[in-house]
Structure formats: C-alpha cells, structure tokens
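tool=predict chain=A
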Amino acid sequence: MPITEEHVAQSVAEALQYISYYHPPDFIAAMSEAYAREENPGAKQAIGQILTNSRMCALGHRPICQDTGSVNVFVDIGVEAELAWTRPLQEIVDEGSRRAYTHDDNPLRASIVRDPLDARKNTGDNTPAMVQVNMVAGDKVEITVSAKGGGSENKSKFAMLNPSDSIADWVVNTVETLGAGWCPPGMLGIGVGGSVDKSMAMAKAVLNEPIDITELRARGPRDRVEELRLEILDRVNALGIGAQGLGGLTTVLDVKIRHFPTHAASLPVSLIPNCAATRHLHFTLDGSGPAEFAAPDLSLWPEEIASETGDAVRLDLDALDEATLAGLAPGQTVLLNGTLYTGRDAAHKRMVETLDRGEPLPVDLKGRAIYYVGPVDPVRGEVIGPAGPTTSTRMDKFTDRILSETGLKLMVGKAERGEAAIEAIRKHGAVYLIAVGGAAYLVSKAIKSSTPVAYQDLGMEAIYELRVEDMPVTVAVDTKGQSIHEIGPKRWRRSA
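tool=predict ok
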C-alpha cells in the first residue's frame, strides 16, 4: 500500500499536538529520580513545579511551555517504500505543522519569523519546519518529530578542536558558560566528527534517543562513547548549576553522543542542549494510514510532589516601595499579587525607540513590575494560555534605560542576568525575580485577568496588563546586586 501525503501530514500534525502536552515517559522517570535525590530546597521545588505542570498539561491537553518550539522533523525514507507524493516533502511536513499550530482546541504559539535579516515578520503558523531527510534500507518511512524551544536552541555551540584535545573538557567548560537560559535539568546532545554541518545535525538528532544513563551506569560502559557519556554527565552535574541555575545536584539528566568519520586533521564537535520542555515522538508509516498515538499512563507521574510554596512571602505589586524591595533576598520564594505588565524583546525595543523620540510610553511603569513573557493564546474560557518566562538576558541591553527613565522596580523572567543588567538593578534599587521555565501552564493558573494595553500588533509580544494571585517566583537578584545564579552554583559545586 502506498504511503500518501495525507498519512505524513496528519501524522505530523497529531504528533505535534501530542508532544505539546505529553512529556516522553523516560523524561518523566528521569525527572522524578532527580526530584527524589535533590538536596537543594529551591532546586527541588523547581523540579516539583515542572513535574506538577507536566501532569496538569497531560490532563488538560495544553502546552507544557509557552514556547511551543520550532518544528524539527527527521525523516528516514526506505528506498523500497511506495510513495504517493506529488509535492516536496517540505510542503507536506509544513502542512502537518500548520494544522497542529492552528488547532482550534489547542492552538500552539507561532514563533517562526519569515525574514531573519529584515522585518522578522511572524509567519503566523510556525512554518516552515526544519526537515532532515535520509534514505535508508527498507520499505517504510520512519519519522521523528520534535519541538525545540528557543531558549535551549540559542545555547547551541560548535568548536573545531584539535584531534588531541579533550572533548569532555570542552563540553564541561562550555556548559559552565551557558547559564540557565536553556532551562535545566535537561539533556546534552553531542555530535562528533563528520563536518561542521554533519556534526550539528547529529547533535540535534541524538537528543531524540531514550534516556538510559541509569541503566548504562548500572551495567558499566562498553566502549569509549559510553565512558565519555558518563564522564561528561558526572562532571557537568558536579558544576552545581542545578535546576533553573539555582544550584543543586542535577543539571543534566543524560548525555547523548553520536559520531561519524572525519578528516584526519579535524575534530568537529557540536553541543546542543535540550530543556525541561523536552518534546519528541517517533512513528512509522507503512501505507496503512496515519500514525496513532496512545496517551501515556498517568501513573508515570509521581504522586507526592512538593511544588507548593508554604514558606513564601506574599508581595503586593500595587504597593512596591524601597523598604519592601530591600527586604527581599536571593533564593527567597515570593508569591506575587496584583498588577503585572508583560513585555519582552519587541516591546522593549519599541519602548526605547519611543523614549528616544521624547514621547511618553503607552504604559506608566513607575513603581511597577514587568514580566518577560509571550503566552500561548487562550482557549475554552481561559484568561490566558500557558505563560512561562522567556530568557531575560535578551532584555539586558534595555534594562538600565528602562529602569532609569520609567521608574520600573521589578522584573520577572528566567535565568541569570548579565553584569550590566545586574549593575543597573543595583544602581536603581530594583529587583529581578525568576519563574520556573518549563512550568508555563502552572504559572498561567495564577493569572486571573489579562488585558492588552499596548502594541497589539506585536501579537504574543504585545504589552498586557495581568492581575495575578499567588504567582510563585524566586528572588534572583536583590537590590544590592547579589545573584542567586552566582551564589547557588558556588554553594553546590563539588568534585566529580
């Protein structure tokens, strides 16, 4: 029987919907193990929130993360497969992606911009997908679909090492510089050999392999690749970066390595991390119809997860003053209540351009708080869709200007801030808080109203006025410029 275009398109669409709200079972198991052994209360709470969010998404069929990712599709076509295709595979896959991202019951956030060099206008349906094709033996079509978030994708690295250099040293040293913008705990995909492009392709593809590091450690390594996986895992976790960069025992859940013959004078090495919103699914098409996917058993999720924040301090966002802000300390859990504005890359750029013209901003930010977020569209009576934080360092270059000229006092995002931003925070007596990346649906439940107030043409990057109740966050940088992303990892660093 022929494998049709509809078999491919519909399978891709259903797979993308599936992975938007179901974590892979091996990831849930690995995160549950990490939760059980974590000793840092802050990191344990972060992992607990990720697991709680994961179960909520599985039940509610809503996205795990507000960044529903770029679509990556890996296609192995059997040379004997009977294909009833008249369109290029790229167009067929894009049709499936379009169906998934514009689904009425669970629309996914469109994040792809058409022209990366100019206007960067959003395509509106998250196409085109990133498609990799191999011709293999057999008469079937094997497809792996993954959704890769921008926070982890932006941390990808490549190096052309000398053949005598240590791959483990380069990986460990590189991960130490990545910060927490890739939302650990996650996985590391490593491609070694081939060429520059081959190395990167292998690092991306190997992230879709099952997590099996516990079994590997139990039986012992059988070759140099497995030895290297264990060495890198132990050394990276010994850095003490921990969940969300708060410091802790688990930074990576597994290390995957794929290699290929290379030039005698070369050692190309690529590193691509996968975040706490790890999302991928494999299926086979044989001509009998679109793939079918069974829902995972809810017993996969641990029953006892302490994601609650009983020792947290409530903060009134409508009554921020210097004394209140000065009393916040790095690592402290805070529950936000009151008015919270949204605004990320495009909104910050436009605000600065407005200030450059000497014009007033459309929103008065004096004494207020802003949340770096681009939420998913709401459905079925929701106030807002999944609304987790975006990487805050992208706002660093705007921070001093915004704080000094608007009177903004509090920022909420994810991961660390750079030196210039921390100095601006200290100078202006502001505070930076972090929400848990990978817990977007959980965070959205604390948002009780959402009203667009400016820049609606920017879509998910518009400025909204939110009313929040007990939104859980952690103090990352206090008014003195002390950062939990420096304090935490130093406290939990250990010898591998």
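The chain has 15 helices and 17 strands. Residues 25 and 297 are 9 Å apart (CA to CA).
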